[in-house]
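Input/output pair, single chain:
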Amino acid sequence: MGITTKSACLAAGLLVAAGSAAFAEGSHDWTTSKWGKDDQIGAANLMTPESVKAASQLITTGKVYSLGMIVGSDTPAFPPRSLSVTVLQPNQISNSGMGKNAFTYNDDIFMGWLGIGPQIDGLGHAGVDHVYYNGHKDSDFAKAAGLTELGLHNLPGLVGRGVLLDMAKFYGVDMVEEGTAYTADDVKAAAKQQGVELREGDIVLFNSNWMNLLDGENPDPKRFGAAEPGLGVSGAEYLAELGVMAVGADTWGMEVVPAEVEGDAFRAHQILQPENGIYILENMDTRELAKDEAHEFLFVLGQARLKGAVQMIINPIAIR
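Output:
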């Protein structure tokens, strides 16, 4: 996620209060996974050999789309997240390299947060008053050295039918304005307009052209990180009811900021993740897909399986 420091502090302060209310008012026991008490991967259980084979049939042109935006130390990120890369030539400063053939090499050291730039939020990320997917309490599983439950290393990857909803086209604008919530009615209407049906097990991506604020004609990274258009509460509830596998967007937090209800914080995250086990993909560069009107495609994600990780920098691939 990326947002101004002031807004981040407000969101963090309100998250527990908003989450507690949602938890208390819940109409069903979402703390037990429908895939069983030992389930670690949530909606990824919908990925089957049959669904993967069916998704592969969507390839018609063979064109490959890289959905991971380029990330660097200047990428707007949710405070205090940051990263840096140091390139060095270990043990080669005062010699000609290794062996008679003078083998030399570069290595790099990564220092930073894994929830930065193009990322997947694992099921151990978003909670409701310290309760997470399948009823796990953070005091029991969120250890400093890594998650003991719900770590992203449990996820074998995500492969399935990808669907793009071009919300800029739907609203008839060059770029969707911050604070615009994609409601359930909007999601349904956009799908109808663009001739695509949303189904169980889909990976649903939203395009708003928000990334033009980073590399367009008039870049404004401060605005990019201060707020965003995105999925609203009813939209999240609708996608959860359909049983999608993952939801992503071309924004730092996937859901609308400021929230639809004053005082709420990242409610769509709570609906998707702890309550339904659905993965969240952020900072996905969907512009080329939108330009080509590629609304259905094979989606392939293989994240680094770092033991106990909450999030991971990713570069998913869409194949049309």
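The chain has one domain: 5-83+113-319. The first helix runs from residue 5 to 25.
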